[in-house]
Amino acid sequence: MSPKKIMCLFDVDGTLTKARQTIDPAFDEFIQTKIKPLCTLGVVGGSDFKKIAEQLNGDDMIFRFDYVFPENGLVQFKFGKEVGRQSIQKFMGEEKLQTIINFSLGYLAKVVLPVKRGTFIEFRSGMLNICPIGRSCSQEERDSFEKYDKEFQVRQTMIDVLKKKFPDIGLSYAIGGQISFDVFPHGWDKTYCLRHLENEGFDEIHFFGDKTDEGGNDHEIFNDPRTIGHKVTSPEDTRKQLVQLFDL
Ligand code: M1P
Which residues are alpha-D-mannose 1-phosphate-binding (predicted)? Predict the structure, then answer.
């Protein structure tokens, strides 16, 4: 009997790295030297490619991980080559897109926070990223917002308002990080990347993620029947679970 073809598919923030930080060099080496010989490596993040590459030691991470899926897999790299990308713009059309952008900008203009910075909506290939504090905040401001949001639910409140205001616009909302939330058409969550793995002959796809609860951006893929879900609490926990999985 030939050995099972196994894939380990990792979320980034909270799973391979601390939120928006770079991967710990010892953990990176562990993955590349101990895990890569045993399985195929994949990464699926909510962030765009630029951010994922920064966190995983540069653009050549597309050669160190076999499959790389930024923006939930709306952009796809296989063995170091881009093989496809989705466009939210084409899919939704300008009118609907502007409806949501304009309403969100108006809503955010009225939100009062301890501090507010710039870049409140980031337009990506396959999604919008909405950030009440503004993406240009410092690390310290980012950490403070996360605490403030835990107490005052700024992001969840805005998501509830958007859902109520636009029940039929066909958009889903997911909180994947510390300061923002992602907005994308229904079904364009992280399970989107699985369609690019369906014909690749894997016997098992092990998914590792931290935001697996409802509303978190790992929820759908963690519960998808096509994956074996591993809930982790930190990069250290991911390492522990890999050691257990492969009996190292
Ligand atoms: O990878 C998880 C999330 O990382 C970032 O979140 P934040 O800036 O809020 O910490 C964003 O890139 C977000 O899109 C992504 O889902």
Answer: 20, 124, 135, 142, 180, 182
Beta-strand ranges (E) seen in 99-219 are 121-123, 128-130, 171-174, 181-185, 204-209
Per-residue model confidence as pLDDT tens digits over 165-184: 999 999 999 998 999 999 99
Residue pair 229/212 in contact (Cβ under 8 Å)? The answer is: yes
**Residue 196 DSSP symbol:** G
Query: What token pair was written down for 110?
Result: 């009225």
Cβ atoms 153, 143 nearer than 8 A: no
- 117: annotated binding-site residue? no
Q: Catalytic positions, please?
A: 11, 13
Q: Which atom of ligand 1 is nearest to the CA of 48?
A: 12
Interhelix angle 154-165/94-110, nearest 10 degrees: 140
Mean local confidence (pLDDT), 183-212:
97
With the C-alpha atoms ordered 107, 109, 115, 117, is the resulting torsion angle positive or negative?
positive
Residue 127: which of 183, 45, 69 has the closest Cα?
A: 183
**pTM score:** 0.92
